[in-house]
Amino acid sequence: MPTRPGQILVTTGATQALALVAQLYVRRGSAVVVETPSWPGCLDALLAAGARPRRVPLDEDGIQPRGFSAALPAAALAHVTPTFHNPTGILMSVGRRERIAELAARAGVPLLEDLAYDTRLWDGPEPGPVAGYAPPGAEVLSVGSLAKSVWGGLRIGWLRGPGPVVERLARLKARADLGSPLLDQALAVRLLPRVDALRAERAAVLRTRLAGLEAALARELPGWTWQRPAGGAALWIRLPAPAGAAVFSQVALRHGVELVPGAATDPSGDHDAYVRLPFTLPEPRLVELVARLSRAWAAYGGTPSAG
């Protein structure tokens, strides 16, 4: 999209960008539209600012327009993760991006799109950001980062939005940390021209690890189910009924595995039938991960361990 320098704010990672936006727009008790499930880090930033989440479920194209429209009245902000949704890995369709941008603009609600979870796993066209489909005058803020596509230790992110809004956010950032580290910024400038190639290399590694994880899960935990994600680096796994992920995650911890239970992705505590399982580890460690989960599952009272 055509963008002026004054529309960009460099941040210390995408997490800081989310926190600054929450600080600007949210007051205690403010209604904020969020996807359900949603990434706990995003929810934490909004809840810390005093937000009252209005949850909207997803379908295969992303956040559902009817629920989104119903949640918008009197909301201070709306948050979506179109590319790729965390934790489900869903890629929001072009038509859905257009519709969501139109609904937010019509309601006069600022829209925050989180594009930091940006690793595409499979070949195919990738839509542009929601901001590119927004009608004139819409207030859309787009957050990106190098952490997922390059390295998690490179805490450099950015936010694109209307110039006056970015100027206000820059003042908030200056009060928070005076500025992001210059060495990290210099490294980011060197890496940005190669970011497409780096993403492709990362995706190839993740596809191999995903295949290994899926094979191990199918072998040792055949009752667990999931949809293969379009992007990102984790599986959103449904446990067999009547298992509860919050309790099982405590059992898994005693077997050396730390899980994000589905209830942590929803302020209401829903989605307790799900766990988020990353496939970022090397293949031998993923095999060991599944072996430990299998033993934990047996101890929990699920299907007996294959090992």
Describe this structure in words.
The chain is an alpha/beta fold. Helix content is 40%, strand content 16%. It has 9 helices and 11 strands. The chain has an 8-stranded mixed beta sheet with strand order 1-8-7-6-5-2-3-4, sandwiched between helices. Helix 4 (94-107) links the parallel strand 5 (77-80) and strand 6. Helix 7 runs parallel beside helix 9 (283-300). The longest helix has 26 residues, at 195-220. The chain starts with 7 loop residues before the first strand and ends in a 7-residue tail after the last helix. The model has no long low-confidence stretch (mean pLDDT 94).
- Let me know the number of strands: 11
User: How are strands sequenced across the largest beta sheet?
Assistant: 1-8-7-6-5-2-3-4
Residue ranges: pLDDT <50 for 5 or more in a row? Answer: none
Shape: globular
Largest sheet: 8 strands, mixed
Order of helices and strands: EHEHEEHEHEEEHHHEHEEH
End-to-end separation = 53 Å
Structural class: alpha/beta
Please, what is the average pLDDT? 94
Short description:
This protein is of the alpha/beta class and 307 residues long.
How are the SSEs ordered, and which strands pair?
Blueprint: E1 8-11, H1 13-25, E2 31-36, H2 40-48, E3 52-59, E4 62-63, H3 65-71, E5 77-80, H4 94-107, E6 111-114, E7 140-145, E8 157-160, H5 163-177, H6 182-191, H7 195-220, E9 234-238, H8 245-254, E10 260-261, E11 274-278, H9 283-300
Parallel strand pairs: 2-3, 2-5, 5-6, 6-7
Antiparallel strand pairs: 1-8, 3-4, 7-8, 9-11, 10-11
Helix pairs in contact: 1-2, 1-5, 7-9, 8-9
